[in-house]
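The following record pairs a protein chain with its ligand, S-adenosylmethionine.
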Amino acid sequence: MKNKKQQQAGKSRQTTPAARVQRELLPEQSTELLKELHILTRDGQLNADSRRKLKQINHLANLLTPDLERLFGEDRDPLIIDAGAGNGYLGFVLYELWCQPNGRGTVLNLELREDLVTRARERATTLGYERMVYEQQAVAELVPHEALDRPPVWHDRPVDAVVALHACDTATDDAIELGIRAGASVIAVVPCCQAEIARLLAGTAVHAPAGALWRHPIHRREFGANLTNVIRAHVLEAFGYQVTVTELTGWEHSLKNELILARKVQRRNSLALKHLQQLLAGLPYLPMGLLERLLPAEPDASESLAEMAAAEA
Ligand SMILES: C[S@@+](CC[C@H](N)C(=O)[O-])C[C@H]1O[C@@H](n2cnc3c(N)ncnc32)[C@H](O)[C@@H]1O
């Protein structure tokens, strides 16, 4: 006899027949779009892998509802960036639910792979989604590193929201930096693999006070991933975001499941910065790209905050 876990695993492997697909959808979400994205089969069924993807995307889209309601409620033309967009499933869904009915708003997808960019552009054309835009470029390229006193813009348009669903390794950090420098009102990331800090820890002495936490490779990987997300959340807080960290969907749907959702509520938060500095002080020096770019350790970590504040003024 199967135990509960096995029964659940069996269930999550099953195909959902067309007649039951509706209950997986958001209000106003069409099966036509999902068929075009090959999330649903031609006869409207949902296989197990696509169901997992749909659950993640819909849950994230749902959590963003209050932010999008606010952005689209204002009399403006919001710019939403999907960093590391892949096939653009999330962007297409956001477009259908928000940009299409409102007749305004743009989803800008940043993606490195040419084949994915080409296919997504074809889909956008087929669907008539004129403001579903794909650029084949790295996320970091949108940040004007040569002139950091200017916030990132796209064709002179300010960035309102940045989302990154499973953007690989440090691409998630690039998305966070892009959102922070742009002053985006919402930044939502679900990190993917994250190896940078584990690599940095591998080169440090394990007899440092906390060294036991990363002595064994498997602990180093897990601790490194956890520390990475803790640092990301603190950096966002330091830059004036209110941050929640939660599961995106149940772990049976994805192991890469941690959602960092950040909403801009104030200019800066010096207490969060202090906590981050205290945390880092208890660890070996970690030249993590995100920290180095946003909070240089020398001579004073608050310097770049002050520079950004001055540039904003
Ligand atoms: C795991 S996929 C996730 C795709 C999509 N967000 C999703 O959830 O279905 C990560 C994508 O990010 C892209 N990518 C990785 N690094 C990137 C970077 N620095 N800039 C832009 N895209 C990047 C990869 O080519 C890949 O398509």
